[in-house]
Amino acid sequence: MGKTIRTKAVDHLFQGVLSLENAEECYTFFEDVCTVNELLSLSQRFEVARMLREHRTYLEIAEKTGASTATISRVNRSLNYGNDGYDMVFERIKIEDEEEKIQE
Fold first, then answer.
1. Beta carbons within 10 angstroms of residue 28's beta carbon
2. What is the CATH number of the domain that holds 65?
3. How large is the C-alpha radius of gyration of the chain?
4. What is the pTM assigned to this prediction?
């Protein structure tokens, strides 16, 4: 049986994340919760996913992000066979970006 991430501790962490109201609060919280390397790794994976969705090549992604081909491959596997979390967030970001442009 594999490990489950659905625990009370993870629920509490997510409740904390959901309480954050802006990017500055995210910086404050995540700088306390994560090491610099952990935060940079998470942001790198997110950039890799974004670039994969833009149909960029592995070589281009590796050069731009510094990610290994193993990391790019893992992120690609998540995009293709995961829980669609990246796509859900990308869609929401796209909607927010469009709403901001309309308001300008």
1. 12
2. 1.10.1270.10
3. 16
4. 0.86
Into how many domains does the chain fold? 2
Same domain, 28 and 49: no
Q: How far is CA 104 from the centre of its chain?
A: 27
pLDDT digits (tens, 9 = 90+) for 63-74: 999 999 999 999
Q: Using one digit for the tens of pLDDT, what is the confidence trace for 16-75?
A: 999 999 999 999 999 999 999 999 999 999 999 999 999 999 999 999 999 999 999 999
Alpha helices in the chain (DSSP H): 8-18, 23-33, 36-53, 58-65, 69-81, 85-103
- Distance (Å, whole) CA 89 – CA 82: 13
Report the distance separating Cα 64 and Cα 62, nearest Å.
6
Q: Are residues 49 and 76 in the same domain?
A: yes
